[in-house]
Structure formats: C-alpha cells, structure tokens
Predict the structure.
Amino acid sequence: MRPPLPRLHAVTDEHIARRPDLDLIVKQLATAGPDLALHARGRSLSGLEHYELAIRLSAHPPLRLFVNDRLDVALAAGALGVQLRDDSLPVAEARRLRSDWWIGRSVHSLLEAQAALASGAGYLVVGPMYPTSTHPDATPLAIDALRAIALLGLPVIAIGGVTVDHVAELRRAGAHGVAAIRALWDAPSPGDAAGAMLAALHAT
C-alpha cells in the first residue's frame, strides 16, 4: 500500500546538491520523521549527479524520496514519487513505469492545475506563493488562486518563499502541505525548522 503524501517537502537545487555538509543536513532533517519528503532536484545536474543526490537524500529513513523530472533516477533510487514540469514526460507515461508512484505536476495557475488534473496527476505543487530568491522574476499567486486550485480535489503542496509563518494561511486556503528550499536547507538548525513547519501543518 502506498504511504500517504507527506505534508512537508524539502526541495534541493544545484547549490544544495553540492554542499559539503549535505549529508549532515539530511541526517538532521530525518529527525522530523516520515511526514517529510526530500526532493532530488537540479536542472543542471548530470544524470549521475542527480542519481548520487537521490541516493544521499534517501540514506536516512524514514525520510521519503521524491525525484523531480528524472524518471530514470526515480526508478533507480526507489523513489516514493516524482514531480513533473509541463515539459516533462506526460503523467500517463510516468505511471506506466510505476503505478504506485505519487506523480505530481508543478502548476502556476488554475488553468494549468485543471490540465494536470485531467492528465491524471496525483498531487499538485502550486506556486510561487510569495516572493522567492529561487525565481525572483515570478509574480506570486494570490491566496484565492490557491484556494480555487485546492477545490479541484487533488492534494496541493504550496511552494515559493514559504516559511513557518505562512503555513496557517496556506492551510486555511486548502493546501495539504508546503514545500521549501531556503527555509529548511539554510536554517541554523534544519531539523528544528522542519519540526516547526510540521507542527504548524498539523495544528491547522
């Protein structure tokens, strides 16, 4: 039976993938438990680098591994799920590879969310919700847009500039959970930051 979709998602980038303290941070994040997923993501990583990142992220159970875009890496690393962009392999083709995967789509509008729902996606990553250094030129979505997307019925993971202070607002708008990069990987104590976010997610 497939485990539930985690509520908190810690997403990497190329910089994080190459940090010398990556393994130490993963070990700290693992203290948050199975409701935390780690996403192996890095568009400029080679296939081998992406695979090595995925293996390092999955080295500390009970963390759940998701892989962004690289379905070959997800298969090889035994990931719980994958997250696809609009230019990735279609959801239906991904599901042919592993029927038990959580297969998500990154969306930035209600129209894109509706298309992802029609394609068979199992969850949606929606954003950016707030200004973010990862995508400094992107216009944040309105909370009403998140609320409308959540009403489609798929689990929604809100992303983009998310901190613990945003969690209550996002949950009230219908988000199943949140994803973060800097707020977790760059925190003085990543394990404490993940614990605080999960506590806020479970309190609302």
